[in-house]
Specification:
The chain has eight helices and no strands. It is mostly helical and 198 residues long. Helix content is 77%, strand content 0%.
């Protein structure tokens, strides 16, 4: 009896190949899409800077958030229809510089200008998020993942800092956000210089 138990216990420790698969074909592309923004430096910097700007301008920043959410699928649709014809990744680096500079200088933008900046960021992030040509269902799942991932990143940055400010009441967060905005701007400038130098 003990020998049988011991053999069974040892057998469970043997390494074996797993034969797992996803329940929905092509869903792996969705999960990779969620992380897409991290593979495009201009996109992640723009999302981070825009999140800082939105929380800096709350409650008016809510309009900018929704402008981004509406614009990002439009940008993806343009890319799906026309293909990626222009260097949107380079444009995103410039946009990150502009937004980071606005955060660092704490520029008082009205709601319309803020919404316009967010809409441009959404269109461009959506444009670079659409995947390369392939099977339609895989492209759709990957594209949806990329769009959702961008919105999640923006929400985490803007909402996370806003929640921290409300919960803690730390007044120095205002200065910290401006400092981080200046760092984001500086990193984007370095990336742009590296891209120009080639």
């Amino acid at each position: 009896m003990q020998r049988g138990f011991l053999l069974t216990a040892l057998a469970t420790c043997l390494p074996m190949q797993a034969a797992a698969h996803s329940a929905i074909p092509g869903v792996a592309g969705f999960y990779w899409g969620l992380l897409h923004a991290f593979s495009v430096p201009g996109a992640i910097l723009t999302l981070f800077a825009l999140g800082l700007l939105i929380q800096q301008r709350l409650p008016e920043g809510q309009i900018a958030f929704w402008a981004f959410v509406i614009a990002i699928p439009v940008g993806a649709a343009l890319s799906a229809i026309a293909g990626q014809q222009w260097p949107a990744s380079t444009f995103l680096i410039g946009l990150a510089v502009l937004i980071g500079l606005h955060v660092a200088l704490d520029v008082q933008l009205n709601a319309k200008v803020l919404a316009a900046i967010a809409a441009i960021a959404g269109l461009t992030c959506g444009y670079v998020s659409w995947p390369d040509p392939g099977p339609w269902n895989a492209m759709l799942l990957s594209g949806l993942g990329a769009l959702l991932g961008s919105v999640i990143i923006l929400t985490m940055v803007a909402g996370g800092i806003a929640a921290l400010r409300i919960e803690t009441g730390w007044n120095w967060l205002t200065i910290a956000v401006r400092v981080v905005g200046s760092w984001t701007c500086a990193i984007a400038i370095l990336l742009g210089a590296a891209a120009i130098r080639g």
